[in-house]
Write the structure tokens for this entry.
Amino acid sequence: MSRLGDLIRLERTRQGLTHKQVARKCGVSDKYLMEVENGTRIIADDQARRILKTMGMKEQTEADFTLDDIAATVDLQSAVPQLTKAVETKKPAAKAEPVAESDPGVAGSIWLDALSGVLKHVPVYNAVMKEVGHRLLPITNGKIEGASPDKVFYFMAPDNGLRGFRIQRGDLVLVVPAQAAVDGAIMLLQTPQGRVLRKVKRVNDYQAMLQKYDESFESEIKNYNEITFVGRCVRLEADLT
């Protein structure tokens, strides 16, 4: 499978161009172009970028989606039906003329609008909830991990308090909203000292055990009215270096 080939096919389809039309504009054969799109021929990054640029797609859009971001994050083959449907819905009734390659105004806004339906910039926050980066995640059936895409975020572990549970300082955990204890889950809590990660065990209908595990295992039991649950951690990204 060629992710850059998928990008070329999506942009060509968005503009309603044939293989021959694109091949003629880009100075390649239509057979070569079809093989690239089908993933049977490897295309160099600079060649793929030249073809996309010639078709009018900017490498960087106003929404900060780069080709590298997209190719590294999304299974574009599975996204094709959703993108195609969104593009067809937004196309005007009259067939638009192919845009000249010299036109600098082509940002692929229809393509980007369609793409935004399957991709989301998810912010990365540190311990004081300052945004320090982002990750691109695919949206499935309008959700990310079962939650609204606008409600999920990554939290950077501020310490080694959960090292015994395989979460170390600097690791990223994906958080989805949860205002109640989830038994056995790693959860993000709001405390007077800031936001912290703890493993939660339900004790009864009124209390939960909050666990941490660095050099040694520690736990404390608190009443639910003393705990502010922010969310449940559903994914871990760790640096292996």
Q: What stands out?
A: Residues 3-92+109-117 form a domain with the 434 Repressor (Amino-terminal Domain) fold (CATH 1.10.260.40). The CA atoms of residues 40 and 161 lie 48 Å apart. The first strand starts at residue 119 and ends at 125. The chain has two domains: 3-92+109-117, 120-237.
